[in-house]
């Protein structure tokens, strides 16, 4: 039975890393003593070790230790043996590239489908959908495939932004980009605003947090989903 938290972001304005999620994570990872961290999406200029330390410091406040996947000799075995897994944010293209390069994508999907508790933030959430095509990141590397975990039956657009009323900016809005995606792709897309997350319990997906989320489906008008509800379409 899947047990996942899929968050739009790791940090909301005015708080520290994962601070807003920690009460939820304490329950989500109840009984987990050591968490496996996947830092492959690492933000620019940060080493895997430094990124892992950031995660380690946050989880220490709820008495959970963290060890990076790069610290193990065998990445597949590290995933298979893990009590819980956290994939952090950064660049989704590089994250997916490394998951394929280390041949662990299918292993990760298998353990998540079997119930290993998971946390994804930003890029780590983007990979939970059918594919990574709705990332906002620059394609700094070319992964072997855009296909990702498929743990939920739609795609994620993390850090979803609404148009700013009165703005003179003439570039594409996030909604425009998603509509362009739907010219060639059928997958539904959930615009997940910062501070919101999904709770996955087996095949059920619930929206959590204080904000609504915007659901886009091909050839349909987008709709706002209320927090607390089951996502169905």
From TrEMBL:
It comes from the Bacteria. It holds the Pfam family Peptidase_S51. Keywords: Hydrolase, Protease, Serine protease. The keyword Transmembrane does not apply. Belongs to the peptidase S51 family. PANTHER family: ALPHA-ASPARTYL DIPEPTIDASE (PTHR20842:SF0), PROTEASE S51 ALPHA-ASPARTYL DIPEPTIDASE (PTHR20842). This is Dipeptidase E. It comes from Polaribacter sejongensis.
């Amino acid at each position: 039975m899947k047990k996942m938290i899929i968050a739009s972001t790791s940090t909301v304005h005015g708080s520290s890393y994962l601070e807003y999620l920690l009460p939820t994570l304490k329950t989500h990872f109840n009984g987990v003593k050591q968490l496996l961290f996947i830092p492959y999406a690492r933000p620019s200029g940060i080493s895997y070790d430094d990124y892992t330390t950031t995660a380690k410091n946050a989880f220490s406040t709820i008495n959970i230790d963290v060890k990076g996947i790069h610290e193990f000799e065998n990445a597949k075995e590290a995933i298979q043996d893990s009590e819980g897994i956290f994939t952090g944010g950064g660049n989704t293209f590089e994250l997916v590239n490394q998951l394929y390069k280390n041949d662990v994508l299918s292993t990760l999907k298998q353990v998540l489908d079997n119930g290993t508790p998971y946390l994804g933030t930003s890029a780590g959430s983007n990979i939970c959908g059918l594919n990574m095509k709705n990332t906002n990141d620059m394609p700094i590397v070319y992964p072997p495939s855009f296909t990702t975990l498929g743990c939920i039956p739609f795609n994620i657009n993390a850090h979803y932004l609404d148009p700013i009323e009165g703005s003179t900016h003439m570039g594409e809005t996030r909604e425009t980009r998603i509509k362009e995606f739907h010219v060639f792709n059928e997958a539904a897309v959930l615009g997940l605003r910062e501070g919101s997350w999904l709770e996955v319990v087996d095949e059920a997906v619930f929206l959590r947090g204080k904000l609504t989320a915007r659901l886009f489906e091909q050839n349909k008008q987008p709709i706002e989903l209320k927090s607390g509800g089951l996502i169905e379409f």
